[in-house]
Amino acid sequence: MYDSAMTDVTDVELAAYFGVSVRLLPHLDELLADFDELGSDPGLVATWLKEHGVGARSRVLDLGCGKGAVAVALARALGCRVTGIDAYTPFVEEARKQGAELGAADLCCFRVGDIRREAGHETGYDAVLLLAVGPVFGGPADTIGALRRCTRPGGLMIIDDGYLLAAAIDFPGYEALLDRERTVAQLAAHGDEIIAEKLVSRAEAEAQNRRYQAWIEERGRRLARRRPELASDIAAYVEKERREETIIERDVQSAVWLLRRSDDRPGGDFAS
To answer: Where are the beta strands (DSSP E) in 113-224?
Structure first.
C-alpha cells in the first residue's frame, strides 16, 4: 500500500521523479509490476564486489534500492548485510517480501526514506550502491561526494548512470549528464580510483527498452480498463517512457562504474 506519510519525500516530488501525475503515483507499482531489477544487473554488482573482497562480514548500503533485487542477490551470493532505502513505499514492501521469500530476510533491512537525507547519516559502509537512480544528488562530482559520506576509507562505490553522446538533453532527469571526459573527471574529482567500468551496448539497451515498453503498455491497458478516469494520465506516462527510451538509445551511453574511495590501506579485505 502506498503511504506518502512514511517518507519525507512529498507526493509532488515523487511524481516528478518518476514522471507521472500525482494521482497516478499510487498506481505506479502496478504499472511497474513486471520490473524486478529496475534496470541494474545484480550479477555484475555481485561479481565486482566479490572480486574486491566483499563477503560475509561486510556491510553494503543500497541507496534507491527499488524492489530490492540487487540487495537480496548480494545477501544470498556473498552473505553480506545489506541496508536498502527507497522513497516509494510499495517498492520497499516488495523488497521485504522478496527478502523473506528468498531466505535473505536476516541479512537485508529495507526501509522507506529520502536517500538525500539518509546519505548524510549512514556511514562506514564497506560498499555503497547508487544504481539507475538518476541525478538526485546533482552531477557526478556531487553524487560521488554524497556516496563518499556513507563509505569507509578504502570502501567501494558503484554508480549506474551514463554520459552524453550528443549535445545537452532537455528532458527531466537528464539535465546533469555530461560528456564522457567530464563525467570521468568528475567521478574521480575527490581523489577516488575508478577500478572498473561496464558500458551497456546499444543492442542491450534497445532489447531492454523494447521489453520494458511492452510491459508498461500492457499494464497500462489493464489499469485503464479498470480505472478509466486515469486513462489520460497513463497515456502521458507511456508516451514519456517512449520518448525517454529514444533518448537513451540515441543520445546516452549507459554505464556502470566501480570506484574505490581514497585512503585505502594496501592489501586487506572487508572481513575486519
So the answer is: 125-131, 151-164, 193-199
- Taking 70 as the threshold, does the pLDDT of residue 257 lie above it? yes
DSSP 179: B
The type of residue at 196 is A
User: How far is it, in rounded angstroms, from Cα 197 to Cα 58?
Assistant: 22
What is the rounded radius of gyration, in angstroms, for the C-alpha atoms of the chain? 18
Alpha carbons 215 and 136: distance in angstroms, whole number: 26
**Cα angle vertex 152, ends 186, 200, to 5°?**
45
Rounded to an integer, what distance in angstroms lies between the CA atom of residue 94 and that of residue 210? 24
Fill in the DSSP letter of residue 120: T
User: 0.85 exceeded by the pTM?
Assistant: yes
Q: Under DSSP, is residue 44 helix (H, G, I), strand (E, B) or coil?
A: helix
CB 134 within 8 Å of CB 42: no
Q: How many beta carbons lie within 10 A of that of residue 43, not counting itself?
A: 12
Cα–Cα distance for residue pair 264/272, rounded to 1 Å: 14
**Amino acid sitting at position 242:** R
Segment 41-70 mean pLDDT: 97
Closest CA to 147 of 89, 85, 196: 85
Residue at grid coordinates 551470493: 77
**CATH number at 39-202+253-260:** 3.40.50.150
Instruction: Write down the number of H helices and E strands in the chain.
Output: 10, 7
pLDDT tier at 29, thresholds 50, 70, 90: very high
What are φ and ψ of residue 37, in 5° steps? -95, -10
Distance between terminal CA atoms of the chain?
A: 40
- CA distance linking residue 271 with residue 244, whole number of Å: 42
